[in-house]
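May I ask you to review the protein record following this short note?
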Amino acid sequence: MALPLRSVLVAAFACCAFPAFGAELSSTTVTTTRYNHDGHVETKYYDPLVESLPSLTGKCVAITGTTSGLGYWAAVATAKKGASCLIMLNRPSIRAVNAEMYVKSYAASNVQIFTVHCDLLNYTSVRAAAPIVNQIASKFGGLDVLMLNAGIMTQPDNRTTDGLDIMMETDTLSHFLLTKLLMPSLQQAAAARKEVRIVIQASLARGTNHVMQGGGPFDAKYYMKSAPGTLGGNGGAGYRERYHQSKLANLLFALAMHSKFTRASEFSQFKALASAPGFARTHLKIPHWGTMAKSVLHDGICLSAPDGSCPMLTAMYMPSSKSGDFYEPSGLAIGPPLRVIAEGTVVEPSQFPRWIAGIRDAEFCTNANLEAMWAAAEAGIGETFVIGPAGMDVVV
């Protein structure tokens, strides 16, 4: 099936059949970390891309959500390319233990790998993990790359122990807080090696569609404490909207941070980027959907998890990647990585697959929305996140 036709079919399913507007697909392989290590995962873009990446010797990298899927394969690539330090942030589990073991089997001889327990559903856990990451990174001259990958979807309209929407806290707000708490390590590496990168995982789910419910404009209420059941409930539209808001938030987060970095001279060595995997076979929970749609999407027109990690690896490590860049598959849902936002400016024109999937990046990623997202995230974590001279934030 030709790539453009396949992309159109994926986009059509994203709008009409798939409950989350095009998010990562659940893998049909055995749902343990071992599936990542069995040597039978098909790849088309991953191996050549990893081969083309520069050596990471001397670099310290931290990645959230590495027990399976996209984060796992990003960790494997990081270990293969010889990063001196790889920190994997995961919830405590046997899967986290196994992931570290398997990633180590790919690692170059100089790589030191650490697992730090971090439950993004809980700010207390994030606050406990950050000093550990800072302590580890300090031994390697600071943190060069922070990949904010972990995410969940299709969760009930319940609240975390912090009183927030489950998906928004996990996918966005805890990453916002973690980034703030790891700034000392990032600043240390920037001073020593003249470049650091913060990469945030977005999704096709950032799109909107006026036919289906869900996928609306930025709305600060999703960042705030609220009673269970008040953000759309547990129907399809509610699921779509909450996940959409969290993934739109991640793109806005990256672009807002980029804008702040460009306006603060002391952060000139910082890069903020975003990525999205298109349709990729991972372990994100999705609701039951039709056999035909699942067969078409899963078996016919989606990426393997390694290939789905290629946009994030491009943002994390490719020398040509710049602050404010956003990478996703060239066919929107499938294909090799393509830069669709360059240094904060949308460069990929609205094509039919993108239009039918409701991708409106230029419409949503306005300066007003960047500023509003940052303020809402600060309210959501209950504190300010200042980028700029001490005591003076840089306005987006």
Summary: The mean pLDDT is 86. The domain at 3-381 is CATH 3.40.50.720 (Rossmann fold). The first helix runs from residue 3 to 16.
